[in-house]
Amino acid sequence: MSTVSRVTTQSDPTGLHRVLDDATVLPQAARRLDTRRELWPDEVRIRVERLNLDAASFRQLEGEHGDGAAVRAAVLAIVAERGKMQNPVTGSGGMLIGTVEEVGPESPLGLRVGQRVATLVSLTLTPLVIEDGLDGWDGRTEQVPCDGYAVLFGRSIAAVLPDDLPTGLSLAVMDVCGAPALTARVVQQYVERGARPRVAVIGGGGKSGSLALAAARAEGAGVLVGVVPTETEAARLRAAGLADAVVVTDARDPIALRDAVAATGGAADVTVVCVDVPGCEGGAILATAEGGTVIFFSMATSFSAAALGAEGVAADVTMLVGNGYVPGHATYALELLRTNTGVRGLFEGRLA
């Protein structure tokens, strides 16, 4: 792809100059991106080592295609067609790790050639070329060994990989590092007002959920409730010691979810939604006390369902969209992993 459909004379820090659509849209909303190797002055090119598909996207691909080879073929087709990894059903992508290959002279990211980094922006807006046919991936895991290149813009975000953690572990944490950082911020706001909020995390046994529980505890929350779908996950979460109460229920059943959280001592002041299945909006709202806060981190969330659902039950709750970025979020999440043995155990178990 060496030609663009719009006349572009200079780069834009948002990556607008890489958009191949006729309409003026940002890269995330674009149908196709320009993936030329040559950099604009404020760009950085990364030699890709591994992709991490977000959970909602991988679950959808696995459910539709089943066979690992078919999942691999589907990912290759998406990237070839769109110049980025953006699941056409879920609209989501993931992130990647790799080595800085070239830095434009005007790049503001502070990166140097040879650094191993994780991109903290979505694959849905990152120009990407896969050069090895994903030959090293069996199509059965979210983490995808890959050889190719990707391009970061002036307003992209990347973090240098730490030396003290395995690469796969770092990637798994950085993929969800926005969740604990925003959870911490919300809990801090309650604590500053003299409250110790009850916090319920739906999907508390997963990557983002376990980190959210650890963050809430670290920032002074009161009772922590972990909501999981199976007894197997409940046993793991109890063993990790991250929650004061662990309940097993289907988060898609709004009444069951409401009652399960209430049975632990009352509705939650803060409810954090970290599951990768649709249909959890109503239950999260009902499980939250009047005047409370619901944080939606799942890419499977329907924000119209959340807004109309809250209105329909006259729920006075503040609803936040977790956009994946809070200043310092990667450093915060990695430190939680280092210092919380329960979190680290859950992550290592998932990777194993």
Structure in words:
The longest helix is centred in the first third of the chain and has 15 residues, at 68-82. Strands 4-5-1-2-3-6 form a six-stranded antiparallel sheet, with helices on both faces. Strands 9-8-7-10-11-12 form a six-stranded parallel sheet, sandwiched between helices. Mean pLDDT is 94; it is low at 1-7. 50% of the residues are buried. It has 352 residues and is of the alpha/beta class. The two termini are 39 Å apart. It is 34% helix and 20% strand. The protein has helices spanning 55-65, 68-82, 167-174, 178-192, 207-218, 231-240, 254-262, 281-286, 303-312, 329-339, 341-351, and strands at residues 44-53, 94-103, 116-119, 128-130, 143-152, 158-160, 199-202, 224-228, 245-248, 268-273, 288-296, 318-321. Strand 8, helix 6 (231-240) and strand 9 (245-248) form a beta-alpha-beta unit. The chain folds into two domains: 16-165, Alpha-Beta Complex (Quinone Oxidoreductase, Chain A, domain 1), CATH 3.90.180; 178-326 and 340-351, Rossmann fold (3-Layer(aba) Sandwich), CATH 3.40.50.
Strand order of the largest sheet: 4-5-1-2-3-6
Mean pLDDT across the residues is 94
**Class computed from helices, strands and strand pairing:** alpha/beta
Task: Give the overall shape.
Answer: globular
The biggest sheet, with number of strands, parallel, antiparallel or mixed sense and barrel status, is: 6 strands, antiparallel
